């Protein structure tokens, strides 16, 4: 079921497509709905950390129940990101590789981080 | 620079680590900060769609400037997700494969979708 | 308990301060934690709508359980917004009044909406 | 224009309705779009804080440009929350007052905070 061939991005996208098709969920998987679900899942991951000090946050994987919750929400974020990309025909790995190359020019090594968010 | 070996998740995680290290940004990349940044970037992707009808949203990649913006925000979401996973030692692909298997039991084929969000 | 004097923004801010102080929660109510909680609660409100069609979304208050959930999440969003403003000394009503006036100049009547999000 | 009568929640909701009507933006102000916009604006507020230490976050209003940005994003969050409530007929102040009363029973004074987010 979870052989190595499934543990790459295209394999997981294929499994997600089959999962949704078998349940007739494709009708709900519009780009707008999927991106809303992605942002909701990212917030559920943030929720785990919202009241923690930086030190508590760094130790979050040491407590098994909380570690499982982190992995579960990471899976949800990635699932909706990959389904969003499938529906719109975006290659997420190529998009990230291209962005890293742009950022290597935009933020030369040694620069201060963009604290105000860019 | 962007050879095939980089176009998988571990390769991209390695490039992101090198990128941050070369700029001394590791100090900012705490789990709590990275998950906040992840949720902010997911919302920036949602922002592109917030006023669009479902039909306009489905056609978003047909307009080059907007398509580029979608790819750029997908890259940002994936970048922060992968960096968050690197810092906490989470394997995102294994987490998603495990989640799909759990969901195959939780939502048998033919069930109605969980409209209230689970 | 809920006399009219409490049904304005300063009265509710006072009640929220007393509520947190009685539980010694002030230590968690840093600006950074409160703004994270605000964004998490806004996403929980979004979650109610994420799979709904525009028509289903417009009728969401007709179903009592869902209507209650909407009101509950609206309360959470407002609670964290008001607590965030209390901690930083921001007057939210004055900030909104000033923003409306700026927007009356920025978007003259008759202009098309800023579809790409501004 | 900004007389005292506008500096309460119903007055601001009225001004927001007039503002949208004069620009024919009501067509975009569906509940689903408004709640998406609310969550996007909450994330823009979070973005200001995402790389800051707790100490830097607490001092954010001391720097005028950043203070203005905080007030501007607070206004946006409140604007979309109030417009969402107007469209669905929710009274946000009554919802918050009712929630505080429920929470006074749910979290008796002296209890520990719900660190995992409830």
Question: What can you tell me about this protein's structure?
Answer:
The structure is a homotetramer of 118-residue chains. The first copy, chain A, has 118 residues and is mainly alpha-helical. Chain A has one domain: Helix Hairpins (Orthogonal Bundle), CATH 1.10.287. In chain A, 66% of the residues lie in helices and 0% in strands. Chain A is built from five helices and no strands. Chain A has helices at 9-22, 31-49, 54-58, 64-88, 92-106. The longest helix of chain A has 25 residues, at 64-88. The mean pLDDT of chain A is 91. Chains A and B meet through helix 1, helix 2, helix 3, helix 4 and helix 5 of A and helix 1, helix 2, helix 3, helix 4 and helix 5 of B.
What order do the helices and strands come in, and which of them pair?
4 copies of one chain form a homotetramer.
Chain A: H1 9-22, H2 31-49, H3 54-58, H4 64-88, H5 92-106
Helix pairs in contact in A: 1-4, 2-4
User: What sequence of helices (H) and strands (E) makes up the elements of chain A?
Assistant: HHHHH
Low-confidence stretches of chain A: none
Biggest interface, residues from each chain: A-B, 70 and 70 residues
Q: Tally the helices of chain A: what do you get?
A: 5
Number of domains of chain A: 1
CATH fold-level name of chain A: Helix Hairpins
Mean pLDDT of chain A: 91
| CATH evolutionary superfamily of chain A | MazG-like
Rg result of chain A? 17 Å
Major beta sheet summary of chain A? none
Helical residue percent band of chain A: 55-70%
Name of the level-1 CATH class of chain A: Mainly Alpha
The protein's oligomeric status is homotetramer
Query: Could you say what the CATH architecture of chain A is?
Result: Orthogonal Bundle
Shape of chain A: globular
């Amino acid at each position: 079921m979870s052989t190595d061939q499934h543990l790459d991005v295209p394999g997981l996208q294929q499994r997600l497509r089959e999962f949704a098709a078998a349940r007739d969920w494709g009708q709900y998987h519009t780009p707008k709905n999927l991106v809303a679900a992605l942002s909701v899942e990212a917030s559920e991951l943030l929720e785990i950390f919202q009241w923690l000090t930086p030190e508590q946050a760094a130790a979050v994987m040491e407590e098994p129940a909380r570690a499982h919750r982190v992995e579960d929400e990471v899976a949800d974020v990635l699932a909706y990101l990959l389904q969003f990309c499938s529906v719109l025909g975006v290659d997420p790995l190529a998009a990230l590789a291209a962005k890293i190359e742009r950022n290597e020019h935009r933020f030369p090594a040694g620069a201060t981080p963009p604290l105000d968010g860019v």
